[in-house]
Amino acid sequence: SIIYALREGVITTLTTEGQLRSNGMAVDEDGSMLIAAHDEREISRINPMTLQRSSVASSYDNLGFTAPNDLVVSSAGHVFFSDPAYNSQVDGRDRDLDFEGVFHFDGQTVHLIDDSISRPNGITLSIDETWLYVASRGDNDVYRYPVAPDGTRVGRMAGTRNVTNIAFGGADGRTLYITERNRLLSAAMPLPGLPY
Q1: How confident is the model at residue 83 (pLDDT cuts 50, 70, 90)?
Q2: Rounded distance between C-alpha atoms, residue 176 and residue 168, angstroms
Q3: Which residues, including other chains, have CB under 8 Å from residue 60's CB and lie 6 or more apart?
Q4: Distance CA 15, CA 189 (A)
Q5: Is the Cβ–Cβ distance between 130 and 190 less than 8 Å?
Q6: How far from 163 is each of 26, 27, 58, 112, 118, CA to CA, in Å?
Q7: What digits encode the pLDDT tens for the residues 125-175?
Q8: CA dist., res. 48 & res. 172, Å (int)
Q9: Which terminus of the chain faces fewer neighbouring Cβ atoms within 10 Å, N or C?
Q10: DSSP string covering 73-142
Q11: pLDDT at 94
Q12: Are 114 and 145 a contacting pair, CB within 8 Å?
């Protein structure tokens, strides 16, 4: 993955191809980048000025994550992330966890939100941070959880297949965009979500 920075109209390359393998990224309260890092099987923090990388969370119950995919950070600094298992091995290493999961890191401890979703992928919060939304590539569903994690299912959207990611947008922030392999879907939501 290549990470770029846009500062005062100038694009700068922060990482080069092959330097790290990541997917989802977010910026935390101090301006550091948080990344869902496949290569290290963790959530990493990168200082955008020094490019120094450190581990934020790398395991649940002393078992390493498989391949963190996407993440979102709340205004309180809590990190919510997906950890799917697209392969039985990651970089030639066997998986530690025997499930795919959606997790919450509160700054001290990693909590499991759900281990029943097949291929959890895109993840976002409602603008008031009371709901967590997770796209499932395996189930082709979008799940919704209260931030206190005992979740309820939003339901299956007609015709969805190969769901890959989700993000809020639209003029009022109340449109949930859902990407598939070859299509972009949208759904009107009662509450706005965090902008991507």
Answers
A1: very high
A2: 5
A3: 97, 101, 103, 110, 112
A4: 36
A5: no
A6: 21, 24, 26, 22, 11
A7: 988 888 899 988 888 888 888 887 544 555 555 555 677 778 888 888 888
A8: 31
A9: C
A10: E-TT--EEEEE--SSSEETTEE-S-SS-EEEEE-SS-EEEEES--SSEEEEEEBTTSSEEEEEETTTTEE
A11: 76
A12: yes
Q: What is the dihedral of CA 33, 175, 165, 5, to 10 degrees?
A: -30
- What tokens does 50 get? 């020094």
Helical (H) or strand (E) element with 162: none
Yes or no: say if 156 and 141 are a contact pair by the CB < 8 Å rule. Answer: yes
Q: Which residues pair with 135 in a beta bridge?
A: 142
Question: Rounded to an integer, what distance in angstroms lies between the CA atom of residue 70 and that of residue 21?
Answer: 12
Count CB atoms within 10 A of the CB of residue 114. Answer: 20
CA distance 150 to 104: 12
User: Strand, coil or helix: what is 5?
Assistant: strand
Q: Max CA-CA distance within the chain?
A: 46
The pLDDT value given to residue 76: 85
- Tokens for 37? 């890092």
φ, ψ of residue 82 in degrees (nearest 5): -105, 150
Q: What is the DSSP string of 24-38?
A: EEEE-TTSPEEEEET
